[in-house]
Each structure stands twice: as structure tokens, then as C-alpha cells.
Amino acid sequence: MRGSNAVKFFSILLIIGILTWIAAYGSILGFEIPGVKNIRTGIDIQGGVDARLYAVTKDNSKAKAEDLDAARIIIGKRLDSKNIFDRVITVDKEKGYILVQIPHKKGEAFDPQKSIEEIGKTALLTFQEVDESKKDTNGNYLPTDKIILEGSDVKDASAEIDAENGGYCVALTLTSEGGKKFSEATGRLIGKPIAIFMDNELISAPNVQTQITGTSARITLGGTAGDEQRDEAKNLAGLIKSGSLPFKLEARQVNNISPTLGSNALNVSINAFIVALILICLFMIFYYRLPGLIASIALVLHTVLELLALSWTHIIVTLPGIAGLILTVGMAVDANVIIFERIKDEIKNGKTLHAAIDVGFKRAFSAVLDSNITTLISAVVLWKFGTGPIQSFAYTLGIGVVLSFITAVTASRIMLKSIQDIEVAKHHWLYGVSMRGGKANG
Amino acid sequence: MVNLYAKRYYFFILSAIIILSGVVMYLVEGFNLDIEFEGGTIIEMRANDKMFTEANTQELQTKIEDFVEKTINKPAKVQKSTSYDVSGTNTKGFDIITISIGSENTLSNDELTKVEEAVVKEFKLTAKDPVVSEESVEPFIGKEIMNNGLKAVAIAFVLIVLYVWYRFKAMSGLSAGVFAIVGVLHDLLIMLSVYVIFQIPLNESFIAAILTVVGYSMNDTVIIYDRIRENNRLLRKVPLPELVNDSIIQTLNRSINTVVTSLIAITTVYVFAKINGINSMEQFSFPLIVGIAAGCYSSIFIASPLYVMWKESQKKKKVSGKPAKA
Which residues 6+ apart lie within 8 Å of A8 measured at CB? Predict the structure, then answer.
């Protein structure tokens, strides 16, 4: 092995070593880099509840996208108040549902049924007159039940740029009934606060500046103007809007899995994964000998890269996702099989080892490319049209195909080319070619 | 050299037999639609140890059925199955009571809670979390998933044909692409037959399995096409049936070995899932095994020979057309 070749070969081994270390321990030299432990697992592995809350409007019309967003904000708020932070809430605007996934936590007494029911209830929004002398420990006003407006009195709420004072404000549009009630109250309460409650939790308490007549009102926000204020205005508008949602949420698909069932499945699939990896390496080494060994090293690189890709992208890995991962381990060596068979052909045709390896990689390239792209097309289509677990499968499959292409074509090639000059590595037997055979057709 | 092309009808017949038995089973049994497609409610609860004995299983199932029916006034089916806890050092089996309610009676959230609480109380289930899993789906959602799935398969087909058409212009790409798809359709029919014959429930994983096989089966065909394309350039004078036959034989090792490694992987998943009683993975991996094997088979024995037959028939047309013109 000439010097530069040795450097190349051992660099690759070193890179694999470092990446494996990162994947296993999640840090290197004191730097935190997400590893296997940071991979997020789905409800089917971790256990938990997964519910689709459909927006049911009175006249069966499609729920508006911004209304669904408002509902998403309120669901988030409610989960916050229950200290459930590790959750996923996604809105499917086209189909009009909100997908809520809450994983189980160890030692947590948690009734998924009840939680889903609670978070799905339309929030009770009230504008109340408050007693300024009565506050809770956090300095927030307490509800008094002197209700000025209810959710149904508010037609719309949106965050707007405050033209008068600069910064952002929340613009309210009231119904004519709501406008009358609000006019009366704001006339009476000038200089005093009107508190806005969501399920008896204070969300804002602006002071009345002047009597507001008509059906539009605005809430100006204190504090300094900027992104923070804009976000606050958006959030407040979303909360107020969710109190006047023109639909109710109904859980039509509920899926609850206990953590024991899921963790069993995870253990089993990890074992299956390790066994599959070993069996494939054995097969490759048995059949292709030296190149097979190199393919196995490349396969380890491929596997580590895929695990890192999963932990860095925060994609949620589900059971089908793990099945996809294992399947790609099988498919990852495809490219190497295609290339090595080609190299064997070339050796049998009488080419020197050097030439055979060069030509093998070159001629096999089109077959490798075409076959990978067809699989990739399927993965992308699955990703686009699948939901939850299927997307996870599509993702692991797609990443696997891309990585296998890269590792098989580059890593294997560099390693194989860097050892081809070693005297012992020149035996044709090491490439799976029997010396007795003449021209073969393999 | 073996002449596979000459023996093509044997392979066609073998495939036809499998697909026909699938069709017969379909007419007899129909598809087994999973809850995701059909809708309905399934509750799995952990039974007490030794609650079920050989002798009382049937009776106890019926008893629970009647009880559930009385509680919510909707007909239910109850089955006992066994699951395993492999998280500890000693793997231990435990019984699971599965209560299923048909799609026309999908339970509301309230009813779900009511049934669970009532069953726990009535049958004195002692597990800490007696409900292992519960799933409730309204029927219309299944239609949506199904439609999306079919759309996905159709789109994947079109995209792949376009790609093969473009890449294999040298061997008249469109017909090559079309026959590759015929091969894939063959694999899907074989897979569907397996689903029907073994009554594996169709669910979302089914769509994933189908699309994986679409991609994978194309892989194998493309490897052969690639060699045909290359030989086409090198050996212009060799007649097409011989050229294709040679290409298939030359790539046989590759075709088989790529399938073998994938089969090793997915079969390992299947075996582990089967031993440990993880149904969802078992039901996902088994059809994939069949699909991947069928994908290899069809690339060698179906898609390529059909492509040759088509090209030959076109040539004959041209030849027979000539004298008429003259």
C-alpha cells in the first residue's frame, strides 16, 4: 500500500469511527451532537395517544384555514396547562382536522381519553368586568362572572400594525349585538380594565381608553414594539378567535397504545436490525470476499449516517420507519453487488485487477443510478401522500437510497482502490473469481 | 446457455396459477379490511394471568361479548390472543382481550371510556394499565386513506415509466417502460393474492408495502434493461430474443444477490416479529418478502420476455407488411 493510499483507507475508517462514536454517545470532545438517543420515536413505539380532531361546522362547510390555526393555538395552550410539552399538533387544512399526538411519559398518570376530550372542547372566551382589588398570587385578575362579551359576540380578531401608536395591536370585529354590549361597558368603565379570560384563565386585561361604539375595537399592546410584540398580538388574536370558532372539534380517530407494547416492539426491531446487519455482512464477505468486506465497512458507514440523519432532522421514527431502516440495510448493498459482479466479469474477461476495478465502477454506474432513482421515486411519492407512520417509512427508505448511492459509489471505491496495490490483495480468489474457470458468464 | 425465452410460457403459467388462486380466494372471502380502511373500534385489554384456561376461553369470550353489548347496546366481537413482554430479562407471555366493534357502530369517546371502565370492573382486571391499545376510526376516513394510496401508486407508475422511457431510449424506451410496469403489476397481483389467501388485513402499511415493491421490482428490471442497453450497442447483429436472453443470464448473479440481501433484511424482521408476536410488523413484512421475491422473478421471467415478444411481433408486422406494398 503506497503512502497516500494508506492515508485514504485509514481516513475512511477514522471517519466511520468518529461518526459511530457521535451516533452512540451524542457528543464528541465536549461538543453536543445529537446521536441515536435523540431520535424521536412515534406513538407506536413510545406509547401514547394519537387523535384526529375533525372540525365539524354547523352547515357542514369546510373549516377555514385560519380558524384551524386558531384551534391549534388553543389546543397547545391547554396541553401547556397540563404540562404536556412533548407533543405534536399538526393541522391538515385540506381535510379539516387537527392531529394531536401525545406520547406517554414514564410514571405519569394520564388518561388519554379524558385529555383528548378536554383539549377538543371549544374554549370558553369571556370579556369580564373585574374587581381591581382582587388578584391571584401572580398578580392576575380573577374572574368575576360579570360577563361583558362572550366568544359568540366576537366575529373576528386579527393582529394588525397599529397606525396611531406604532407597533402592533389586535383588531376585533364584533357582532352588532356584541357591539351594543361593548359600547355600554366601555362607556361605563373608562380608565378601568376589561379582562379577557379563556376558560377562566386570564389572557389579557387592557384598560378602556374611550367608549367604543360600533362593531370594531382594538386592543393596543404595552411594551416595546418589535417582533415580540407582533408575536404577542398574533397569539392573542389567535386565542380570541379560537373562542369564537365556528365549529366544534370531534375526535373521530383515536389510537391509544400502551408504552409496554411499544417498547417491546422497539426492542424486537433493534435486535432484528442488528441481526440483519450481521447476516448481510456475512453474506457479502462469504460471496464477494475482499470487496465484500469493504462493502460491509461501507454498510456500517451507511447505517451510522442514516441514524445520524434521523436524529438531526427530528423526524419521528415509527415502527414502519424502523422496518424501512432495516430494509434499506438490505438494499444498501445492492449498488455494491452490481459493481462487484461487474468487476468479476471484467477480471474473467482477462482485464488486470486495476482495469477491472476501474471499468467495473464506471460501467456499473448507470445501472446503479437507474435502479436507485426508481426506488427514490417511490419513496418521494410515499412521503407526499402518506400520513404519519408511512411518511416515516418513506423518509428512512429515501434517505437510505441516497446514502447507499453515496457510500457504495464513493466510500467503497476509495477503499477498494487504495488496497488494490497490496501484494496479498491481488489474488483473484479474493474477488470471488475462481482461477480454474476460463471465460464465464456470471 | 439456458434459453429462458423459449421456456417463457411455463413461467407465465406459474404466475397465472398464483394470481388465479388469489382471485378465487377473493371471490370466496374478499379482502380483509383493517380498521383503518373500514372504520370501527378495537380495544385491547390485558387479561389477568390464568384468567383464560383451555376450557373456558370460548365461554369467557362470549361472556365478555354479551357484557359489552349490554353496556353500550352495540354488538361486539371478543377474541383472546397472547402477547409477550420482552423488555425484561425473562420473556413472559400474557393474554390480551380484543374487543372489536364494526364500522357501522364506531364508538364515540364516551362509549369507549364506558366500555373500558365497565369491563375492568366486571371482570376484575388487575393490570396497572389494563388498556393496552384502543383504536377508533370513522368509516369515511378509510376511504380517504384508500383513495390517497391509489393516487400515490398511480403517480409513482407514471413517474417511473417517464424515467425509464427517458433513460432507455436506446431500446425504445416507452415499450420498455410499459413492460417494466406490466412486470410490476404482476408483482402487485401476486402480493394482493397473498393478502387475500392469508387474509392479512389491508391497512396503511399495505400501501407502503405496495409502493416499496413498485420501486424495488423496477430496480431488478432496470438492472437487466441496463445490460440489454449495453449489449445493444456492442452486439448489433445478434437477434433480439438471444440478446435479451444473454443479458438476463449475464446479470443473473446480480439480480439474485441484490434480492437475497434485501430478503435477508426483511425476513429477519418477519422472523423477529413473528416470534415476539408483534402483529403490525409481521403483517407488514410478510407481503414485502413475497413482493420482493416476485419482483426478481417477474424481471427475469415476465417483463423481459414480454418485451421481446412485443418487439418481435412488431418486426413481423413490418416484414409481413412489406410484400403487400411491393
Answer: A414, A415, A418
Taking residue B24's Cβ as centre, other Cβ atoms within 10 Å add up to 13
The partner residues of B135 in beta bridges, in order of sequence, read A255, B42
pLDDT tens figures, A255-270? 777 766 666 777 888 8
Chain B contacts of A442, Cβ < 8 Å?
Answer: 250, 252-253
CA distance A246 to A250: 13
Give the model's pLDDT for residue A279.
95
| Grid cell locating A122 | 371549544
Instruction: Tell me which residue in A261, A327, A345 faces B133 most closely, judged by beta carbons.
Output: A261
Tell me: pLDDT of B236 over 90: no
Q: Is B94 helix (H, G, I), strand (E, B) or coil?
A: strand
Q: Which of B156, B49, B204, B7 is nearest to A380 (CA)?
A: B156
Interchain pair A272, B278: CB under 8 A: no
**Helices and strands (DSSP H and E) totals, chain A:** 12, 15
Other C-beta atoms closer than 10 Å to the C-beta of B285 total 28
Contact A154, A178 (CB under 8 A): yes
Grid coordinates representing A45? 413505539
Asked whether the predicted pLDDT for residue A438 surpasses 60, the reply is: no
Does B207 contact chain A (CB < 8 Å)?
yes
CB of A293 closer than 8 Å to CB of A301? no
Model pLDDT, residue B139? 73
**A118 or B182: whose pLDDT is higher?**
B182
Q: In this predicted model, what pLDDT tens digit does every residue of B25-77 receive, in sequence order?
A: 989 888 888 777 777 888 888 888 888 887 888 888 888 889 988 888 888 88
Exposure string (b/e) for A323-351, b if CB count within 10 Å is 16 or more?
A: bbbbbbbbbbbbbbbbbbbbbbbbbbeeb
Q: Hey, what's the cell of A289?
A: 470476499
The 10s digit of each residue's pLDDT in A300-346 is: 999 999 888 888 887 778 777 887 788 888 888 888 888 898 888 88
A379, A385, A397 ranked by CB distance to B148: nearest? A385
Report the complex ipTM.
0.78
pLDDT of residue A91: 85
Alpha helices in A314-427 (DSSP H): 319-332, 334-348, 353-385, 388-406, 412-419
In 3D space, the residue among B125, B176, B184 whose CA is nearest the CA of residue B157 turns out to be: B184
Nearest to B284 among A284, A323, A367 (CB): A323
Count of residues for chain A? 442
Please tell me the distance from the alpha carbon of residue A198 to that of residue A194, in angstroms, as a whole number: 13
What pLDDT score does B187 carry? 92
Q: Cβ-count burial of B179 within 10 angstroms (0-12 exposed, 13-18 middle, 19+ buried)? A: buried
Query: What does R_g of chain A's alpha carbons equal in angstroms?
Result: 31
Strand pairing partners for A173?
A: A156, A216
* Percent of chain B whose predicted confidence (pLDDT) is above 90: 9
Q: At what angle do helices A259-313 and A3-25 cross, to 10 degrees?
A: 140
CA B54 and chain centroid, separation: 34
More confident residue, A333 or A3: A333
